[in-house]
Design brief:
mainly alpha; single chain
Length: 190
């Protein structure tokens, strides 16, 4: 099961790399704090180490110690969660189109996207990436992945706050109305 995980992350990275070139030019950038900046580095390191272990068979001692040994059925569920997370992240990214940015920013001619998954939650890309992380944890279960996932989640929550402030600034009436009818991250819950 573990050998399948890198394929999902490679698809994610390839899609992000290709679509990043299509984004609109930025009009306003918001600086992110140190934890937010670390998020991308942590995701990159986690993916790199998973790929390194997969393709090179590298063993890095304590980093690859499993915290808990899951039964195969949990690993299969993990692959399912990973697949759903990938689908959510790609679908949400597709719906943002040229309005997407890798940094917290407001694009020139930015549109407020409220269709697709954005009809239900305001940050489906983060939900998708977090689901991918949960699925990865269920399959590979490495010690360092748990720590990295916690730090990535913290940075996402900080980034969500900054994004919502920026959207409220540029779409004061529309975004307030959008916030009232949608959830932040988990459909129908929060």
């Amino acid at each position: 099961m573990e050998k399948i995980v890198p394929i999902f992350w490679l698809i994610f990275l390839a899609f992000w790399a290709v679509t990043a070139f299509l984004a609109k030019p930025k009009e306003e950038m918001v600086s992110t704090d140190s934890v937010g900046g670390v998020r991308g580095i942590l995701i990159g390191i986690i993916i790199f180490i998973i790929l390194l272990r997969h393709f090179a068979g590298a063993h890095l001692g304590f980093l690859f110690q499993n915290i808990i040994t899951f039964p195969l059925s949990i690993e299969k569920i993990g692959i399912g969660i990973l697949a759903v997370g990938l689908a959510v992240a790609l679908y949400a990214r597709y719906f943002l189109g040229r309005n997407w940015s890798g940094r917290v920013s407001f694009q020139k001619n930015q549109e407020l996207v409220t269709s697709g998954l954005y009809r239900y939650i305001r940050h489906p890309i983060y939900l998708g990436i977090m689901l991918m992380g949960v699925g990865t944890l269920a399959v590979v279960n490495f010690s360092f992945v748990v720590i990295g996932a916690i730090l990535v989640a913290i940075s996402f929550f900080q980034r969500i706050k900054k994004e919502e402030e920026l959207m409220t600034k540029h779409f004061p009436k529309e975004y307030a109305k959008y916030q009232r009818r949608t959830k932040k991250l988990i459909p129908f819950v929060w």
